[in-house]
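Private note to self, pasted from the team thread so I don't lose it. Backbone tokens:
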């Protein structure tokens, strides 16, 4: 019976705790995010990003390296809502990508914060991309967390990207 307890209850906990050993937590006063140790975290602010996370090794590094980035925009607009942010993000994707298609576009509640989840695909220059975008409107700021990959690589790397993106948490530090 003791062995059954170990197998049914303790073994899954051990496995779950070992999975998290391969992740590192980045935290600042406004948010936190977890990312794999075999990915790089760039906080330099290049290209207007707050953070830029990408794998240390990528199969298509000559063409495009899949990445997750965070943009933060100060709106100072008291009339903005997550619904208006949803419309804005959809319009931006349609303007940036030709043949854009929305696979998922929904408002989600998580940890007392609503966010817009968008999964889209389209062409930019000559390459076909697939992207996952999470957008929050919080304290008069738009937080846009985006995963971008070549469409052909999406099936191989979207699960890890979702795990990273789902770890993102806004901090209430007013």
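Design output:
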């Amino acid at each position: 019976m003791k062995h059954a307890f170990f197998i049914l209850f303790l073994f899954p906990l051990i496995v779950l705790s070992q999975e998290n050993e391969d992740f590192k937590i980045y935290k600042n006063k406004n948010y936190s995010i977890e990312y794999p140790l075999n990915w790089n975290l760039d906080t330099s602010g290049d290209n207007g990003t707050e953070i830029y996370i990408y794998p240390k090794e990528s199969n298509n590094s000559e063409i495009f390296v899949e990445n997750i980035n965070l943009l933060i925009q100060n709106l100072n607009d008291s009339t903005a809502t997550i619904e208006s942010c949803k419309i804005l993000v959809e319009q931006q994707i349609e303007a940036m990508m030709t043949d854009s298609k929305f696979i998922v576009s929904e408002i989600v509640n998580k940890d007392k914060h609503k966010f817009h989840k968008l999964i889209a695909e389209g062409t930019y220059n000559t390459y076909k991309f697939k992207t996952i975008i999470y957008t929050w409107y919080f304290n008069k700021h738009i937080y846009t967390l985006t995963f971008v990959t070549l469409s052909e690589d999406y099936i191989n790397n979207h699960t890890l990207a979702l795990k990273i993106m789902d770890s993102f948490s806004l901090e209430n530090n007013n």
